[in-house]
Amino acid sequence: MGAIGSPALILKTVGLRKRFGGVRAVNGVDLAVPASDVRAIIGPNGAGKTTLFNLMSGALSHDSGRIYFEGKEISGVPPDVLCRRGLARTFQITSIFRRLTVIENVQTACLTHHRRQYNLFRSARRLYRDEATALLERVGLGDQADRPSGVMSHGDQRRLELAIALAGRPRLLLLDEPTAGMAPRERHELMRLVAGIAGDTGLTVVFTEHDMDVVFAVARRITVLHQGAVLAEGAPAEVRANPDVQRVYLGQSPEVK
Amino acid sequence: MHAIANLFPWITNGSLIMIQVMSGLAVGMFLFLVSVGMSLIFGVTRIVNLAHGSFYMVGAYLMVTLVGILPERPWAFWLALCVAPLGVALLGGVIEMTLLRRIYHRDPLMQLILTFGLILVIGTLVLLLWGPDNKSVQRPESLAGSVRLFGQFFPSYYVLVLVLAPLVAVSMWLVFYRTRWGMLIRAATVDREMLGALGVNVAALYTQVFVFGSWLAGLAGALAAPTVAVALGMDSDVLTNAFVVVVIGGLGSFAGSFISAIMVGLLQSFGILIFPAISIVLLFALMAVVLIVRPWGLLGRPEDH
Amino acid sequence: MARPALLAVAALLALAPLVLPPFFLQLLTEIAIAGLFATAFNLLMGFGGMVSFGHAAYFALGAYASALLVKKAGLSMIAALAVAPVLAGVGALVFGIFIVRLTATYFAMLSLAFGQIVFTVIFKWKSLTGGDDGLLGLWPPDWLKSPAAYYYFTVAVVGVAILALHRIVDSPFGSALKAVRENPRRARYIGIDVRRHQLLAFVISGAFSGLAGGLFAFYNGSVFPDFAFFTKSFEPLVVALLGGVGSFFGPLAGAFGFKLLEWAISRQWPVYWPLVLGSVVIAVVVLLPRGFVGLAEVRAWARSARRP
């Protein structure tokens, strides 16, 4: 908890609203994420999770309400500027540079992190290769550095996207359905990796997820969305015991997708 | 105020302004006929026919030939005006069936390159068939003079244009909104796959649309033949203007083509009065403004731009 | 391209004037200029994923700028060739601001339209550009007047320019540009200002195209409005596609083949050249199932260049 703009809160939204035509996708969301939190945002399909992510990462503009990142309002700030300020994101459908090699993917992210993208004179082949290699090793892709990224398995591509996002040394990482399309064991592996990195570096992670086992294994706090608003929020045990949450999820299998 | 009146002596002359407006509208009508064909073809087939200006040119040249071979009778002009666009429609049909059909599934880039190549091929064929000299077509007797409009003289031929083109536009509107074929066309611009799934012969529809679009371009060219020098640069001149009209109005939008064709026509008409070459700059400025405010054109679809 | 191959080519080029008659030196000069134009164009197409159908505008701006600087401002040829690309780059900046925000189809159409606008301005502004008559009497200084001398000069300048473009493609700027081409949205989310990047690529491409135009102006001795006409815009596109847009040196190879073909046909039957060119291109598009070499990169842009 903290006052609006308090630096202890890395991300805060107040009364966030977004509608598409007649649909109120996000309908008054108040979110407060303290630094170093590992926050899961869960909710049934159509609860507004992806829209919320799009609003927070600069992909969409909200109709009303406010969003604060590290105490500063970020309405209308485009994604590339947000990235430079320390907010990174991955997508539901893996978004990488398929025709570049694995290491080139990360090298490119490193060189934009170091603001070198307007340099016309140096050769970029070796630039930040060490930094990129370290990142790849951290996500378990060290041995695939020179493969074209498009031929890797789905799970490995997800890890690559994670490495790309981390290359920008973000302080807040938004992961939109990071484990979609993965087998249960892979999901746990990936999220444990993410939690591990967050623990090591103090990175704040906010992710959406449908697999409750993963959520309860990894998340420090959980926010439950329902019909565009926050239904419940708290530590995993509290949320699990919350009768409203049980009612909303009653009859729905853990793997909603 | 006096300075402005000296620079633009016509500005205080109300009837002169009205005449310029009418001329601008007439020019706009030619542009509309060409642009709406291009826009329609894009709306249904998703191909930008870069050779559309070439079709316009062929329409004009066919008009020259037809008027030349027909006897000098009052009805000759009108017959030629009917037949020339049909010739272009035939050309369009042949091109669609032999070439375009094979590339509908290909990248937009390859489609653009192919139609770009067509410009060169058609241009050379026109040169070979008609020679490098400028040609002309005489206006028919009945329309050779002028009428008095707002106290000024206005070419009678332009009256034909101002009557015929909107007639074509209204007919098109009726076809699109009152006939089954028109409904299919409108449906195709929104969702082609669905149409195929419903059992409509989409391939035939594409051919029909392309033929119709070519006919419109040919009509514009035939209609324009008595008012401009029929020459080899016609295709690129009209193409540039058509692009501007279509970009401002929005690719695929009928009403958009109409409105922006009028805007461009008026701009050109008044631009010439200010400074001969300024119409180009004004065109550029107008296009720039539209692109900044609405990159997909006034009435276009955002997903197309 | 491997070092030994490059050196071999350089050696051949250096020795050419000793064995070849002036006729062939002129052909090689034209090939070099066309190669530079196509390579500059390919920075935008193959590496940036943006296909311009009106690139002759910048070639012509460079040619006319050189001509005017020498004839009206009294600059030397060398000075003119240094300034002309800057002016062409400015032209690219002015047009680029409006069109880099557009997707494949609109970008193609408007680049074509802007090219024609440049043509029309050159054509109509008779007092400045001589209109249809063009500007004549544009010759290199005496020490570069012979075919062999101008050949060496052109090859040297083109060589340096190609090396510069190569360095740019290999630079961090080039990496970011490739990223933009591959996945504009992902590029944005790693901190790249996509539009600014594309605009810069457009300006660099325009500037180097202007240099090619300037070199051609002095080779030709005169400049004409049709330097900006869309048929000239077709040339770097066809050359790049023939040589392969996926590789850096592809367009140079394409220029070689293209110019040979052009010389063969337009010397004998100038009327038929556009017909041959158009037909060949149509045939290749229709008959080659996967299109030209390396086109896959460009497709990524045509499909994915939505607003990220």
CATH class descriptor name of chain C:
Mainly Alpha
Number of domains of chain C: 1
**Major pleated sheet of chain A:** 6 strands, mixed
Largest interface, chains and sizes: B-C, 48 and 46 residues
Tally of contiguous helical segments of chain A: 9
Helical fraction of chain A equals: 25-40%
Order of helices and strands of chain C: HHHHHHHHHHHHHH
Instruction: Provide the CATH architecture of chain C.
Output: Orthogonal Bundle
Q: Provide the gyration radius of chain A in Å.
A: 18 Å
Parts with pLDDT < 50 across at least 5 consecutive residues of chain C: 304-308
Q: What is the assigned CATH homologous superfamily of the largest domain in chain A? A: P-loop containing nucleotide triphosphate hydrolases
The shape of chain A is: globular
Distance between the termini of chain A: 33 Å
Total count of domains of chain A: 2
- What is the chains' assembly state? heterotrimer
Provide mean pLDDT of chain C, rounded.
Answer: 88
Q: Examine the coordinates and then state which fold CATH places here, giving the name of the CATH topology of the largest domain in chain A.
A: Rossmann fold
Beta-sheet strand percentage of chain A? Answer: 15-25%
Order of helices and strands of chain A: EEEHEEHEHHHEHEHEEHH
Quick structural summary:
The complex is a heterotrimer of chains A (257), B (305) and C (308). With 257 residues, chain A is of the alpha/beta class.
Please describe what this structure looks like.
The complex is a heterotrimer of chains A (257), B (305) and C (308). With 257 residues, chain A is α/β, with parallel strands linked by helices. Chain A is built from 9 helices and 10 strands. A 6-stranded mixed sheet of chain A has the order 6-7-8-3-9-10, sandwiched between helices. Chain A is globular and about 55 Å long. The relative contact order of chain A is 0.18. Chain B has a domain of 201 residues. In chain B, 72% of the residues lie in helices and 3% in strands. Chain B contains 12 helices and 2 strands; from the N terminus they run H-H-H-H-H-E-E-H-H-H-H-H-H-H. In chain B, strands 1-2 form a two-stranded antiparallel sheet. The longest helix of chain B has 32 residues. Chain B is globular. Chain B starts with a helix and ends in a 12-residue tail after the last helix. The mean pLDDT of chain B is 87. Chain C has one domain: Orthogonal Bundle (ABC transporter involved in vitamin B12 uptake, BtuC). The longest helix of chain C is centred in the last third of the chain and has 27 residues. Chains in contact: A-C, B-C. Chains B and C meet through helix 5, helix 10 and helix 12 of B and helix 5, helix 11, helix 13 and helix 14 of C.
